[in-house]
Amino acid sequence: MSTAPATHGPVVTTRQGRVALILADNPPVNALAQPVREGLLRAVQEAAADPAVDALAIACEGRTFFAGAEIREFGKPPVPPGLGEVLDAIEACPKPVVAAIHGTALGGGFELALACHARIADAKAAVGLPEVKLGIIPGAGGTQRVPRLAGPVAALEMIASGRHVRAEEARRLGLIDAVAESDLRAEAVELARSLVGRPPRRTGELPVPAFDPAAFDAAAAAVAAKARSQVSPIRAIEAVRLTAGGAGIREGLAAERAIFRELVGSDQAKALRYAFFSEREVQRVPHLQGVAPRQVDVVGVIGAGTMGAGIAVALLDAGLRVVVTETSIEAVGAGWDRISGLYGRAMKSGRIDQAKRDERLSRLSVTDDFAELAACDLVIEAAFEDMAVKQEIFGRLGSVARPGATLATNTSYLDVDAIGRASGRPEDVIGLHFFSPANIMRLVEVVEGAASAKDAVATGVALAKRMGKLPVTCGVCDGFVGNRILATWRQQTDFALEDGALPQEVDAALERYGFAMGPFAVADLAGLDIGWARRKRLAPTRDPGRRYGGTVADRLCAMGRFGQKTGAGYYRYVDGKRQVDPEVTRLVEDVSAELGRERRPFDPNAMVRHVRAAMVNEGAKILAEGVVPRALDIDMVLLHGYGFPAWRGGPMFEADAIGLATILADMRELHALSGPGWEPAPLLVELAEKGGTFAGYSRTPG
Ligand code: 3H9
């Protein structure tokens, strides 16, 4: 081999003395697409055969080491060489091969590193096997090689969670051999050189370290319980158990590969691939393409309640300067305590250290002087959810904020247009609907009012991204996308109580469907009083011809049962533990009798079908009204803000997969039971009748 670089498509080999440095470059994330696999195979074979080469180092250009298999190739006929073949060549290489990891080595990328004879990573790098999040299991040795390095218990935890493991922890677990001190590539080459003359340490040939079988069983049981109906974590247990049980590497790899192949074509994997790509697509808002956001350095937050404090923390975490306003000196003190309290908790859990906390709080000021908002480029109002309160604030804000500042309301339901008009400059006004706790939850609905300037909306999107959030842009309607859909399907669960179900039965059915928590347990956690206040406010304008459904909740509230915080709600709470309450059972039965509704045996499947149909029907209305342009926008809201199971893709995706004719039939059944207001949406009828899908739907403008 000459010392001139040898190029095989996206893979180039250079020589560092007697070490071949193999560099791959496949932007943006070095996915192991076919040309990369082929290039790597040839480069490794050449270096192995080259008498002038003693050792090999594999590294990547760009922002990261290999981020895994090319996901877009899944479901298509495989084109050789397969990743397994490439990894076999690396592991079998008679000369030492070292992986130099920067960025993230994920999935097949980390599996490639595991097939090398040693691994070095830079201090900021992370490794992981996130395949379960795509509905599959590692398919190129991850389930077989990680247990041989880190032991089966740690391996199971890592594979079933799909979490990223930082370099230092990876070193402690034995997954990598060294953390680079300064120059990753030079140190990788040096490491390769130091291994020359020793027999290569092949991960696949290592024995599985001794472990406690009871600990493994406990970890497996925990994984199975958490997975609920998601298949991939359960199948991952199977593959790791095989290694733990002493299977040889060949047998293990074959079994792993068989499970991988089986899962890659499954409905859950398809849904999770859709969720992966939609999460990225949703951030490309068609009508905002090319619109430059406004510059934002200082952000104001009006109100330091739970929501305002959470938003302030998220802004500080993103490196911004933050001015929080409150209405009195006492409230300023309480606001400061709330915000620093959140940092206190973050420190306690080890998420940040004292220096970081101090630096973040140094960018915060809390004041009772509204005029200080004049210094802000963007202001987020997080005051009480009341139109009069918000309009009064925006009236003042309109004159205090500097020209060109973006003014955002964190409303969950209220009309952003009416709030915008009160400011006198509605073109600057948008909605930024955060979810509680705002420093943790990823979803933000960016609400575009009828008069909002495009660059104001783009500014909201850009700020949310900068905060590490997932912005979904939508138009104005009652409850926007998420709360509007939630309101409809929650009503179906309320009806179910009146028609024969008990809260725990409904919760169990929806948890089996895949929600992390059933709706009544969630209601108890969130507090029943807010919904009660809203129902009382809307009571005078409620259509008496429509089924109500709120009677059970109203009665609970009238008894002072506001949920977990009062020790009782749909359940009772003893020492913080949720328990079924016979008093609620009686109350539910009494309400049915009073309303004259016959209590029938609860049919969980029917209820789930109705819940799903209600979601999809409302989604169809949202699409037809142009509140969002694409079905995927709706799915991403439900997945990231409402606990909808990701492995179902989202209600609109699932509806397409089931077939819209079936959903329409469910909706007709639901209409018959629930009465006026529950008619199938015209778009659902239209698409079902012509065999269309929501994914294929695009609204004719106008
Ligand atoms: C696997 O490896 C199976 C093996 O066990 C067995 C094989 C036999 N493929 O997220 P970003 C795209 S399964 C194709 O915005 P970031 C992404 O769509 C795989 N495309 O960047 C986006 O495209 P666009 C296991 C991919 O910096 C662009 O790259 N690996 C892939 O915020 C930038 O992505 C994973 O599951 C891919 N593998 O985050 C890792 N990855 O610009 C998945 C990304 O058109 N990837 N793209 O929208 C990630 O977690 C993040 O992308 C990463 C970077 C952390 C790497």
Give an overview of the whole structure.
With 702 residues, the protein is of the alpha/beta class. It folds into three domains: 6-264, Alpha-Beta Complex (2-enoyl-CoA Hydratase, Chain A, domain 1); 296-474, Rossmann fold; 482-602, N-(1-d-carboxylethyl)-l-norvaline Dehydrogenase, domain 2 (Orthogonal Bundle). Helices cover 48% and strands 12% of the residues. It has 28 helices and 20 strands. An eight-stranded mixed sheet has the order 13-12-11-14-15-16-17-18, with helices on both faces. Helix 2 (83-92) packs parallel to helix 3, helix 5 (152-161) runs parallel beside helix 8 (213-227) and helix 22 packs across helix 23 (582-595). The longest helix has 21 residues, at 604-624. The termini are far apart. The relative contact order is 0.06. The model has no long low-confidence stretch (mean pLDDT 96). (S)-3-Hydroxyhexanoyl-CoA (3H9) is lined by residues 28-29, 31, 64, 67-72, 83, 104, 106-108, 111, 130-131, 134, 138-140, 142, 277, 280.
